[in-house]
Q: What sequence folds into this?
């Protein structure tokens, strides 16, 4: 079996068996490296090389966690939760009233997630700050958090696949378009900027259908959660959130705006988080001598995600070093001759396997474009169809990968009280509702365009 396929299968199987995703990624990398012809020493060297690239991401997550803990001490989360709870009215609120509040809450979360990719391109930085205070309301509504995870993941992935602004400008123009034209120039293939979002509209439509199914059918039923003190879930022992007061609330608002604004200006989540923490300290939310405790609490909340991202970077480097990705593509196409339908399906499935392991569609495009573009030209696919095949193949697996920030981000906010499992409540629901329609709609678009 191809080393990449085997490594991904091992990683996913262990993760679904509730083995730590970090452990699953390490074992999958070792299996893939050894089966791919690397020695144990070469596999570990490649893994360690990749791990270094994930350290900055892990530190950014830890800083965001500390910032979220500091915000929780200001009393702002309590105020937000209490204000939203008033929307429920009395305890005798009718089912229809609760349904309206659920839809309002899901719509708000979805719109914020979409805006995080373009209008205010902060990606997942908003989740540790926004979602934990809302868990009290979700518990009161008996809202299935899998629906919230699907809404968040859609908002984190679909916009960059369709809208050429913010992160979408990076994905569609700087990465997808650039790699397509680079690989297609010797073959006479030329892709214009306007073709890319038009071609990706059909696959994104499939994701939208998956979102509707998730919200209105799969996870519409009530789901019970234990009543936990959400506001204190990320606060270390000996500290409780301050009662809401004007200075604390004002400084919290200023800190959030400053942190997001500085991140936009500098491109650094670390710097933005540190400035936000500093402003909260100046506002008296906590004392500087408590900073170590604050970071410890934040790291405890975000440590798992940070280590998963580090391990995923090592896994990706091992897969690249084996050279088995090229063998996977060429071997798959040798089985189907000149059948265009099967060729398109194989391209999409190969992209799914690669992205599941790497965890990033942005990192997948440079790997597959140089291989897929000549194959697409050889099979007679049009320029628009080529865009669909490469873009969809890369996006497949971003939603639904255990190592993707599109699933890790929602888990970081929804699992504050440890009642939301990363694999079964974030990864599996988003995989089923987004990857299946992406394959179907992507294949259909490639055959029709």
A:
């Amino acid at each position: 079996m191809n080393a990449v396929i085997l490594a991904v299968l091992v990683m996913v199987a262990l993760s679904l068996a509730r083995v730590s995703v970090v452990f699953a990624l390490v074992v999958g990398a070792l299996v893939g490296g050894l089966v791919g012809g690397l020695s144990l020493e070469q596999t570990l060297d490649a893994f360690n090389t990749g791990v270094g690239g994930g350290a900055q991401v892990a530190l950014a997550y830890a800083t965001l966690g500390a910032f979220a803990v500091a915000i929780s001490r200001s009393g702002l989360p309590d105020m937000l939760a209490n204000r939203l709870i008033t929307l429920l009215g009395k305890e005798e609120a009718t089912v229809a009233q609760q349904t309206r509040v659920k839809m309002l809450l899901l719509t708000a979360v979805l719109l914020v997630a979409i805006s995080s990719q373009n209008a205010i391109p902060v990606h997942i930085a908003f989740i540790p700050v926004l979602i934990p205070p809302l868990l009290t309301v979700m518990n009161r509504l008996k809202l299935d958090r899998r629906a919230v995870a699907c809404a968040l993941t859609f908002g984190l992935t679909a916009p960059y696949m369709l809208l050429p602004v913010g992160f979408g400008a990076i994905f569609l123009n700087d990465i997808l378009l650039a790699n397509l034209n680079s690989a297609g120039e010797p073959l006479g293939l030329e892709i214009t900027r306007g073709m890319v979002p038009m071609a990706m509209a059909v696959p994104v439509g499939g994701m939208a259908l998956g979102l509707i199914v998730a919200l209105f059918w799969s996870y519409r039923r009530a789901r019970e959660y234990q009543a936990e003190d959400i506001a204190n879930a990320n606060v270390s022992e000996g500290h409780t959130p301050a009662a809401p007061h004007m200075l604390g609330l004002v400084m919290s608002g200023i800190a959030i705006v400053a942190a997001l604004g500085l991140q936009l200006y500098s491109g650094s989540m670390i710097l933005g988080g540190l400035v936000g923490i500093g402003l909260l300290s100046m506002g008296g939310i906590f004392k500087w001598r408590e900073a170590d405790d604050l970071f410890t609490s934040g790291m405890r909340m975000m440590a798992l995600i940070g280590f998963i991202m580090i391990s995923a970077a090592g896994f990706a480097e091992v897969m690249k070093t084996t050279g088995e990705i090229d063998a996977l593509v060429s071997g798959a196409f040798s089985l189907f001759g000149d059948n265009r339908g099967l060729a398109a399906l194989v391209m999409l499935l190969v992209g799914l396997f690669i992205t599941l392991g790497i965890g990033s569609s942005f990192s997948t495009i440079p790997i597959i474009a140089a291989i897929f573009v000549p194959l697409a030209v050889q099979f007679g696919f049009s320029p628009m169809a080529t865009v669909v095949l490469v873009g969809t193949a890369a996006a497949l697996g971003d939603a639904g990968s255990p190592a993707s920030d599109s699933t890790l981000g929602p888990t970081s906010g929804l699992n504050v009280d440890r009642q939301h499992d990363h694999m079964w409540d974030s990864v599996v629901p988003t995989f089923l509702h987004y990857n299946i329609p992406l394959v179907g709609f992507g294949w259909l678009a490639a055959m029709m365009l």
Residues 56 and 219 are 35 Å apart (CA to CA). Residues 231-242 have pLDDT under 50 and may be disordered. The chain has 18 helices and no strands.
